[in-house]
């Protein structure tokens, strides 16, 4: 028995020794062994010496040298400079880990490297100038780290670079003009940094450029006309900078442009009619600028448009009827302008419309009777306009609405009970600052998902229905400045609200108001007594009249009989 055990142990020792010898013959064995110890990759097996079979390791079919090391999102940490020993590596992906400290300049020695992704770590310091030696590099991603300084001029040598991503860092300085000389560049992303200065005209020389994302920096100057000359651009994001000037007319040259986002700048002038030439346009955002003029009807020539956002500008005139032809439009946002006319009925016919935001304009007329021509409408925001007339009862068909803002208009009539059918209403129901009158519909108590209710500054009367206790999600309420009376129902959202949410209603009483409901109940009791007394008097009078009538009939009959005799 003991002899058998010794034989097994001897066999294991021999096998391990043979495996060790096999591993030693692999060209990157020493380097990989060091990485295994440093990174502590738990997915790498202990008893498998052939690293070509390990997770994330790809070897050459010729000499078994490591050509790719792909270890993303494994919570790894350690010294990445050890990777510089893998001289044959072409692809290195360590994204989404916990590496910190400076990026080792030794990575610049990996002459065959084509793909380098160190994004989403905690790497700081400068971008190593030695990266300028990676002449075969096609993709460089250093996004979402803690990098400082500028873009090193040494990177101008990366003529094969197709993707350059450095977004989400603390980089500063200007965008170098030489980036326009990286003739193979298809994607340049440097958003969420501290870059300043102008967008280089030289970027227009990038004939292969498809995506340019520079949002959330401190860039100033104009949007270069040259950006659109190649016609290859598909995505342009320049939001949240300090850009001035107008939207270039040359934007119409980019037939494949699907996303144009230039909001939160200081752009002036009108939206060029050439925008209609971009048949692939899906997203157009130019909100929070200083744009003027009318809303171009040429947008109707962009059949794929799903989002149109021109909020907070100085646009005037009417919403073109032709925009109703945009069958794929999901969000139409033009709040904070000076647009006039009636609520555009043509837009409401869109079957995919999800959000209609016309708030803070000069729209007038009445709300369309069938305001929910689209069953997908979730956000209807038309507050701060001059809309008059009554709230149409068919608003109850807006069953998917999450938010309804009708405040600060000239609406009259009562609140339709059908509003209680909008069971998905959740974010807010705002009917404040109108001329609504009549009672609060008890059906509103069925809105059990509603968080915010504001009916202040109207002429609503009657009591607050006890059915409102069914609004189980309610947090914010405002009933102020109406003609409501009676006790505030005992309901936590009401009692937790500040008293001013109920002020301006002389007849309201009870917590959270200081006014006691004693006089209300006494008056109600007195009223009941008066009604009872009145009924009693009526009963006595009725009984007296009945007796008088009976006696009179008897007397008349007796008189008639006596006369016959």
TrEMBL record:
Predominant subcellular localization, coarse grouping: membrane
Entry-linked InterPro entries: Leu-rich_rpt (IPR001611), Leu-rich_rpt_typical-subtyp (IPR003591), LRR_dom_sf (IPR032675)
Compartment(s): Membrane
Gene Ontology CC terms: membrane
Residues annotated as signal peptide: 1-24
Keyword Membrane: yes
SMART domains in alphabetical order: LRR_TYP (SM00369)
A Pfam family: LRR_8
Keywords per UniProt: Leucine-rich repeat, Membrane, Repeat, Signal, Transmembrane, Transmembrane helix
Transmembrane segments: 536-560
Record has Transmembrane as a keyword: yes
Gene3D superfamilies attached to this UniProt entry: Ribonuclease Inhibitor
Topology in membrane: Single-pass membrane protein
Family annotation (PANTHER family): SOMATIC EMBRYOGENESIS RECEPTOR KINASE 1 (PTHR47988)
Protein name (Swiss-Prot/TrEMBL): Uncharacterized protein
Species of provenance: Vanilla planifolia
């Amino acid at each position: 028995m003991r002899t058998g055990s010794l034989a097994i142990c001897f066999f294991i020792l021999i096998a391990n020794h043979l495996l060790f010898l096999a591993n030693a013959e692999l060209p990157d064995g020493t380097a990989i062994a060091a990485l295994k110890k440093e990174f502590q990759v738990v997915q790498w097996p202990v008893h498998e010496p052939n690293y070509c079979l390990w997770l994330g390791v790809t070897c050459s079919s010729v000499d078994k040298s490591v050509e790719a090391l792909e270890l993303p999102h494994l919570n790894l940490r350690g010294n990445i400079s050890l990777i510089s020993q893998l001289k044959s590596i072409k692809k290195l992906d360590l994204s989404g880990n916990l590496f910190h400290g400076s990026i080792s300049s030794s990575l610049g020695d990996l002459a065959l490297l084509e793909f380098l992704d160190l994004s989403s770590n905690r790497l700081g310091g400068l971008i190593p100038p030695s990266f300028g030696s990676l002449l075969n590099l096609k993709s460089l991603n250093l996004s979402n780290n803690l990098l400082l300084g500028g873009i090193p001029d040494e990177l101008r040598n990366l003529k094969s670079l197709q993707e350059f991503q450095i977004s989400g860092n603390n980089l500063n300085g200007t965008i170098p003009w030489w980036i326009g000389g990286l003739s193979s560049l298809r994607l340049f992303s440097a958003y969420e940094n501290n870059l300043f200065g102008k967008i280089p005209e030289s970027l227009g020389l990038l004939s292969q450029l498809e995506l340019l994302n520079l949002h959330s920096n401190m860039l100033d100057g104009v949007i270069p006309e040259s950006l659109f000359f190649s016609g290859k651009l598909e995505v342009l994001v320049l939001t949240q900078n300090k850009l001035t000037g107008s939207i270039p007319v040359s934007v119409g040259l980019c037939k494949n442009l699907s996303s144009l986002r230039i909001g939160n700048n200081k752009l002036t002038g009108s939206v060029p009619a050439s925008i209609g030439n971009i048949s692939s346009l899906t997203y157009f955002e130019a909100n929070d600028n200083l744009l003027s003029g009318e809303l171009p009807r040429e947008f109707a020539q962009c059949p794929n448009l799903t989002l149109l956002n021109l909020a907070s500008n100085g646009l005037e005139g009417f919403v073109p009827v032709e925009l109703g032809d945009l069958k794929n439009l999901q969000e139409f946002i033009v709040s904070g302008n000076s647009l006039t006319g009636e609520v555009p009925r043509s837009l409401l016919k869109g079957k995919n419309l999800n959000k209609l935001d016309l708030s803070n304009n000069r729209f007038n007329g009445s709300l369309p009777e069938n305001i929910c021509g689209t069953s997908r409408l979730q956000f209807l925001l038309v507050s701060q306009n001059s809309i008059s007339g009554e709230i149409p009862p068919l608003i109850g068909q807006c069953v998917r609405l999450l938010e309804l803002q009708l405040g600060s208009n000239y609406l009259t009539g009562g609140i339709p009970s059908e509003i209680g059918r909008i069971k998905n209403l959740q974010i807010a129901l705002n009917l404040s600052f109108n001329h609504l009158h009549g009672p609060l519909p008890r059906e509103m108590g069925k809105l059990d998902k509603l968080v915010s209710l504001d009916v202040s500054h109207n002429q609503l009367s009657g009591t607050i229905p006890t059915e409102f206790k069914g609004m189980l999600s309610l947090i914010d309420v405002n009933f102020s400045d109406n003609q409501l009376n009676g006790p505030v129902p005992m309901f936590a959202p009401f009692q937790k609200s500040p008293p001013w949410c109920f002020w301006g209603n002389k007849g309201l009483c009870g917590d959270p108001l200081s006014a006691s409901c004693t006089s209300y109940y006494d008056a109600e009791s007195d009223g009941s007594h008066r009604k009872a007394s009145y009924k009693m008097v009526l009963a006595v009078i009725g009984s007296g009249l009945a007796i008088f009538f009976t006696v009179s009939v008897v007397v008349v009959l007796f008189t008639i009989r006596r006369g016959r005799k």
